[in-house]
Design goal:
Blueprint (H helix, E strand, L loop, with lengths): L11 E5 L3 E10 L2 E11 L5 E2 L2 E2 L2 H15 L5 E6 L4 E9 L3 H13 L9 E11 L2 E13 H13 L3 E7 H12 L6 H11 L7 E7 L3 E8 L2 E9 L2 H12 L3 H10 L6 H25 L5 E7 L8 H9 L2 E4 L6 E2 L7 H6 L5 H7 L6
Parallel strand pairs: 1-6, 3-16, 6-10, 11-14, 14-15
Antiparallel strand pairs: 1-2, 2-3, 4-5, 7-9, 8-9, 11-12, 12-13
Helix pairs in contact: 4-11, 6-7, 8-9
Bound molecules: adenosine-5'-triphosphate and magnesium ion.
The site of magnesium ion (MG) has 4 residues, from loops.
């Protein structure tokens, strides 16, 4: 188990989630990243519920379809876990070396993880000295339920694949944004905030917000470092279900309406969804704000399949009072016209952010 390590051998990123299996293979050369293989195969509803594989035949079949469609030759996989499978916390521990912390991490984790330590895989990364307390350091602690990782690994091994890296969705998200260079913080924003507080040690933060079918992955970056992460349970599927109810449609028909006839959805259904979504994201922003008032969030960077919902950036901007923008990882990953339908792939870009971040685990750059 190595949650943070980079791989020597090439890996493909595979994101197994509630609604689909997404696979990405990249290459990295002098001119940056290039897409080598990609697939996005939908899963039947309820094949995976809360990270648990319920219908293993359907999941295995979707995985084989993804391998077939992508034509990848790789066997090693970088995998993501999210939601209630994983706990990510920034904790403070007495200053020590990485080597020493290795042996103490179980003890430290026991105080922060609500599961039996025997039932989780643990990993950590030292961030640095705690502000205002040189005796302690900030450490990112990750605890991931063994049974969930083992379940995914079993499905992969049946398809002849090996998970050589397990990552958290929130880290893959951060990795994708940093490595592709698709978002560069505007220094005038930081200066403006500093001028406002009248102090030199101010700054601005931005929030990466990946909205999927059931989960919102949030990662707030301050000064180039992760300052707050959370997975919240809300997403595009809540809207699909509301459309089903209001319009008397099947799940599939409601999905179609959401994607292709958004304007025909009842106003009250759209309003309720945007209002709930705004409150969910707002809750995390408030949590963050309570501890980091001097580094206000200046921008919300949206991704995930539900970032494709019509008008979402305008709605979030207005409801949260923070400028929102949709990220497309393919602004920083080349797609060869010879091998791919560029327009089709770019259109699903925001949805592929996490598998792209996972695929980047191959490259020590
Ligand atoms: N063009 C579109 N317009 C609106 N919604 C869309 C569009 N394309 C996909 N979606 C929605 O995006 C969601 C899937 O997004 P994504 O693939 O990021 O989620 P997931 O990773 O499968 O789910 P989760 O991370 O929550 O387990 C679905 O709810 C789907 O209906
Ligand atoms: Mg997802």
């Amino acid at each position: 188990m190595n949650l943070f390590s980079r791989q020597k051998e090439s890996v493909m990123g595979i994101d197994i989630s509630a609604s689909a299996i997404k696979l990405v293979e990249l290459s990295h050369g002098r001119s940056g990243y290039e897409l080598k293989a990609i697939a996005n195969i939908p899963l039947p509803r309820d094949a995976i519920v809360e990270n648990t594989v319920i219908d293993s035949i359907a999941v295995s079949q979707a995985l084989l379809d993804a391998l077939d469609k992508s034509q990848t030759k790789l066997k090693n996989v970088s995998l993501a876990v999210s939601g209630n499978a994983v706990i990510v916390k920034v904790i403070q521990v007495p200053t020590t070396t990485e080597f020493n912390l290795e042996t103490q991490i179980e003890f430290e984790a026991d105080q922060h993880v609500p599961f039996d330590i025997e039932d989780v895989y643990l990993d950590f990364q030292i961030l640095g000295e705690t502000e205002e307390d040189p005796e302690t350091m900030d450490v990112v602690l990750v605890a991931c339920k063994r049974e969930i990782v083992d379940d995914y690994q079993l499905v992969l091994s049946e398809a002849g694949l090996t998970a050589t890296c397990v990552d958290c969705a929130v880290f893959a998200l951060e990795n994708a944004v940093e490595e592709t260079g698709i978002y560069v913080q505007d220094s005038t924003e930081i200066d403006a905030v500093e001028a406002l507080d009248g102090e030199s040690e101010g700054g601005a933060a931005y929030a990466l917000v990946n909205i999927g079918a059931n989960i919102i992955n949030i990662n707030i970056m301050r000064d180039g470092q992760m300052a707050f992460v959370r997975d919240q349970f809300y997403g595009g599927q809540n809207l699909t279900e509301a459309i089903q109810k209001a319009h008397g449609l099947s799940f599939q028909a409601a999905e179609e309406m959401k994607k292709h006839n958004f304007a025909e959805i009842e106003d009250s259904v759209r309003e309720e969804f945007f209002s709930n979504l705004g409150s969910e994201i707002g809750r995390s922003l408030d949590f963050y704000g309570a501890n980091h008032a001097e580094f206000p969030v200046q921008k919300i960077l949206l991704s995930g399949g539900s970032a494709l919902i019509e008008g979402i950036e305008v709605e979030m901007d207005q409801r949260l009072g923070i400028e929102a923008e949709i990220l497309n990882p393919f602004d920083g990953v080349k797609i060869s016209e010879k091998n791919f339908d560029v327009e089709e792939i770019r259109a699903m870009g925001p949805m592929m952010m996490i598998p792209i971040g996972l695929a980047m685990r191959s490259f020590d750059v």
